[in-house]
Amino acid sequence: AYGLVQRDEQDRPYSMIGINFDISAAKRDQQSRQQTEQTIRQQAEREFVLREITQRIRKSLDLPTIFGTAVREIRQVMETDRVGIFKFADNNNFEEGEFVAEAVGNGFEAILGAKIHDPGFTEQLVRYYQQGKISVAEDIHTAGLRDDEVRVLAKFQVRANLVVPLLNGSELWGLLCIHHCAAPRSWQAIEINLIEHIAEQIGIGIQQATLYEKVQSELAIRWRAEEAIALQLRQQRTLGAIAQQIRNSLKI
After folding, report:
1. C-alpha 83: how far from its chain's center?
2. Beta-bridge partners for 153
3. Residue 118 near residue 152, CB atoms below 8 Å
4. Tens of pLDDT along 157-181?
5. Alpha helix (H) residue ranges in the chain
6. Is pTM beyond 0.90 here?
7. Torsion sign across C-alpha atoms 31, 81, 76, 89
8. Is 96 helix (H, G, I), strand (E, B) or coil?
9. Are the C-beta atoms of residues 242 and 250 closer than 8 Å to each other?
């Protein structure tokens, strides 16, 4: 059996959903059965995490809420040391950015708010990630990474790295970074597939929130314009009333 708590927009638990698997008919030895149970549990857990994040994105247009849920749930299901969301600078300078969300285990350095400057992030890498491609390193010291990239990752205690692009439509918005710090790690295909699906949902959330922010900004501009017009009309009416009073006084 496996269960998962569902939370609302304020991260308050409101219900629990679960699933039971009947494996009594499996004619395997104990070791094989335990492996089957573990595989089933992991699959169910990943499906629940994807569903939870998708539901949260559909319910909320608040990016901090979406990001907070995503990094927390991913770190739990991946059983890894750190999960972070990295956002590139707004001026389309892909050499700069910062981590805007993070979930990190005890004993490892927090990087929330850490600003990164990477002159080696070339246009070729931008196009690579814009095509939806990912970066997988089981050990940063043997993965063929650039020396400066290894130094940056080692500074944050990273030993194994999984990086998936976050797209706002067709534009590269940021990166979803999975860090394993304690030791090298072999990333499984099912894990990579899960992170890719989650990154797609986060991208949808970013796109929706960006559109909502744009609409709100346009509405605010329109409201200010309407207020200015209304103020001008009130001033004209006031001036008209004063002029009429002056004319009446002159007649008297």
Report:
1. 10
2. none
3. yes
4. 999 999 999 999 889 999 999 999 9
5. 30-59, 63-78, 123-130, 147-155, 189-251
6. no
7. negative
8. strand
9. no
